[in-house]
Hints:
It is a single chain. The protein has 14 helices and 13 strands. The protein is α/β, with parallel strands linked by helices. The chain has an eight-stranded mixed β-sheet, with helices on both faces. Strands 1-3-4-5-2 form a five-stranded antiparallel β-sheet. Helix 5 crosses helix 6 (224-235) and helix 7 packs antiparallel against helix 10 (306-317). The chain is globular, with a radius of gyration of 22 Å. Bound molecules: D-malate. D-malate binds at residues 158-159, 223-224, 316, 344.
Amino acid sequence: MSVKLTVYPDQCDAYGHLNQASYLSLFERARWELLARGPGMDVFERAGVWPAVRRATVDYHAGVWPGDVLEFTTELVSRGRTSFTLRQRAVRDRDARLAATLESVFVCIDADERPVALPDAVIAALAAEPRRIPLASGLTLGFDEAGQGDPPVVFLHGYPFDRTMWRDQLLTLERHRLIAVDLRGFGVSEQGDPRVSIEQYADDIAALLDVLAVPRAIVVGLSMGGYVALAFAERHPERLAGLALIDTRAEADSADARAGRSATIATIASEGTAGPNTAMAAKLFAEDTAAEVRERVRAMMARAEPAAMIAALGAMRDRPDRLGTLGALSGVPLLVMVGTEDRITPPLDSRKMAEAAPGAELVEVEGAGHLAPVERPATVNEALQAFLDRVV
Ligand code: MLT
């Protein structure tokens, strides 16, 4: 969930721009607003604790002027027994530029100012834990869920990421029921069989929809998640209400790419994931992608299990060409999106997909690399929102 606040002249300094001290009040207002819309402003009081700020670090990135609207997002980045850390971002609404970030460390104290354990109610209010559901096969999949509305939107992550890459979409597209899934082996989902196929990942999604009693969904897939989304479209067409393919391609791997996958599998098996992750991170981002975004993605990659990465590499290597699947999509709305600086699945791949599917809409996201939803969330969310409005 995000909060938008307008900047007024009385918050600005003699030079006309938002004063650095006023930022703290705006960040605080955004936090209260979140509590008001969620668990209630008195969530701490009800739990008998008070959150005292121990440290606040602000980074200023861009100027803000009277009349500007700032969009605030808040993320729980860590928690200890009595303390927790929140990271907030303020983004200029008019051009999606990051204006400032605030990282605050809070300690829960009681009426005598003694640190007390963080109550469960407060943890639940700050960070919804992922849901975990066993499929009919017995394998447990994890996912984050937000919002309400039918048909739901299912988000499928790329390699080697997890459901949390869709954080900005789940915070923003709140007029819909949003389900960001961890593919088997990634995030909190179980691996099951050490070998997997793209088709198996797709069937897992259909099985999850069965358990959730969801007949049809809009599927959004990034890169490997796009390969899975295409397999889902081919194998479960009656369940597809719309398809968004982001930073991905429909064609199979070339012989060189297949050999590269096998070599990476061997490297991970013998040396671990660090080398392949570093090599991939070097190609992931657009030139201007913020350092904190790169850091968040690197941390996500570092969390991926070697077994999940090996299984996924084998699945991607062995997947068939699905350009024909796009041509056969009849009556399913299709959005194709790509970062203009995507070096892993470049814009040419997306143009080919859009040409293959009659009526497809193609959006090229300026200033994004291979992870457009993470690097340029405002632009991607706007395009996704327009697409969802068209489909639903
Ligand atoms: C991904 O982001 O999922 C991967 O780059 C896909 C691939 O390696 O083909």
